Every structure is written in structure tokens, then in C-alpha cells.
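Model it.
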Amino acid sequence: MTDRNAAVLSGLAGIRSDLEDLYRDLHRHPELGLREHRTAKKASDALRDLGYEVTDGIGGTGVIGVLANGDGPTVMARADMDALPVREQTGLPYASTVTLTGPDGTEQPVMHACGHDVHVTALLGCAQLMNRAKDAWRGTFVALFQPSEENGEGAQAMIDDGLTARAPRPDVVLAQHVLPYPAGYVGTRPGSFLSAADSLRVTVHGRGAHGSMPQAAVDPVVMAAMIVVRLQTIVSRELAAITPAVVTVGSIHAGTGPNVIPDSAVIELNVRTYDDATRTQVLKAIERIVRTESEASGSPKAPEIERTAAFPPTVNDEETTRRVAEAFAAHFGDDAHTIDLQTASEDMSEIPQAFGVPFTYWGIGGIDAELYAEAAKKGTVAQDVPVNHSPAFAPVVQPTLDTGVSAMTVAALAWLGS
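Modeled.
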């Protein structure tokens, strides 16, 4: 295994500079979900130049490239492509200044604030190395570039557009994400890794009146306030202390002026859980609290509860993860770790589930190691280290890219025998 890794990774030095240029280009030109036309073309053109059999436009902008290299397993490696409506504040010379028209018709700043530009670059680097060293492995390597992960739409869009019929059925699916850990870090975790995420929009109804005449009203603002307070007891009083979950109310909208009691209030909230039982329990508790508080307030109309977004939990197959973790330990040494449970969410797991195959998903670090070490020494990592989705999040170019390319390649080679 070590010899095979060395044979394939020996080509990294020769493509490093081109990959760094590609990464800066992708970072400078971010695109929102299902609009990743430029990024998808970069991926498909590169794969075609490498001799991959390419299918693009899957689910809108999704791309797959297939490199068949004799008898052996089939490994699918996935990278997401989309950026976020965030105004970049990194100060980098290759910072994004892109603005795009949003769904509401307004201009939105766009930034690769989650590191998907790292993922695309790393997978294209891996695809190039696999093509250059075909004597060192056997099987089929499939590179998949997925749109619209941030909206939780892209994986299902590719599946709905016939992904399972248009790509070889893999034996395993691999994916990675750059996270706010020191660059060079690689972390695996068997079982639960990323949370399920459910976003809800709750509308509660009252009866409007003059602000000076509350006796004539059913006040939806007070109703919403009571619901928000009560929601905080789900995690603190209905779940065991060792059961991780998060319930966050991110938005409340009601009324148009200080002296008018409105007819309704809208609450938007987000839920993070790690298994189906807890997810069901928390969602049922939210519904119970909303309906009961509405009734207790004398609401003239039942509340409306709408799920606006849903991400599945990311639960890594234990045997698959063990195999990758052993390969990482042999290659990365002390930089290979067991990573903590993460509260972020992903839709990647829908792809292996559609094929009915196991998967593993790991994290790599992207933060300057000295900056991270200094923050850790002071106990200020949460304050001083920018995290994903922050306008200041900017993975250092190296060793982040080398780590991402190497990790994906080493993981793929754990299956693709010579």
C-alpha cells in the first residue's frame, strides 16, 4: 500500500503549481447553487483532457468523470462546487468581488466561504494523479462534482436526473471537507459525524388591534415569544444530557409599527440532531409546543408549520472508515486523527444511499498552523479562528491543497488494488 501510494503521489510536485492557480481562480469566481456553470466546465474540461469519460449537466450542473483501468473495485469520489451569498472580508489578493442576482431580484455578494473551491481542486488533483499512474492501481475511479450542497438540493437533483443509471455503481463513496483545524490535519470518525438539519417556518395567528386596546386582540408577538422560550426546554429538559442536539431560533418577524398589534408572527428555526430517533422526538416536541402555546393564547386559527429545508445525518460506515483511517495513519502519521462530532450538515450521503453502498466522509484542516496554535494556547480558538461560512474564512493554500489531494488519493487507493 505504501509503495502504491508513493507511486501515485510522486506526481503531486509536478502539478502543485497548476493546482494552486486553479484554486485561486475558483476562489475568485464563486457561483451559487445550481448556477455553477463556469466551475462545472472547468471540471469537465479538465477531466476530458485527462481521458476520462465525462457526463455533464446531471441535475443541472453536476459532472461525473469515469476512468476505467482494468478489473477491480469502483471508487466514487465526490466534491461539492457551490459558494455562498457572503461578502468576502479576507483581504486576499484573489478575494471574490462577484455579485449575482438572487432569487428575490437583488444583487448578492458571493464567496467561497465554505471551502468548496478546495474540494474541487483536490478532486481534480486526485483525478490527474490517478490518470498519470495507472500502472499502480486497478479498477475504476469516478470523480463526481456535485452542485448546490449549501441548499441541500444538489445530491437529490443528480439522483432525480438518473445518476445511478448514468454512472458505474461504486463499491464505496468517498468525500471530504475543509474545516477550521490546522492545515495538514486529517480527521476521520466512524458512525455519526455530521448532524441532520431541519429548517422550519412557523406561522402563528392572532387577532390584530390597536396597541392601546390589547383586550380586543390575541397578540401573536407574545405568543411567539412564549414559543421561543419554551423551545429552549426541548434540549435542556426533554433530551438526556449525553444526547447532542441544537434548536436555534434565527428569525422572528411580526408587525409593522409600535402601536399596532399584528394578525400573525413568523418564527424561523433550525434543528440539528444525529440520529433518526432524536430527530423525530425533537420535531414532534416543536410541533407540540407550537400548537399548545397557540391554543393557550386563544389563537383563532391553528398554526402553520412548514419544513423549508432538510439535510440527512452523515453517518459513516464503520468498516469503510476504519479502512481509510488505517491508510491515513500509515501515510500522514501524527497528522491523522479521530475528529470530533460536527454540528454542520451535508447532503452527500444521499448519493451512496441511492446506490445502496457504504461511504465515509472525513475532514481536513485549512487554518494556518501557527495562527491556530497561538489561539489554542490562549484558549481563544472560537474567537480567533474563522469558521466555515464566515466572511473571513480562507483556507491557506498550502499545505491545505496537498493534504486534500493526498487524502483523497490515499483513500481511493485503499480499494483500488494493483
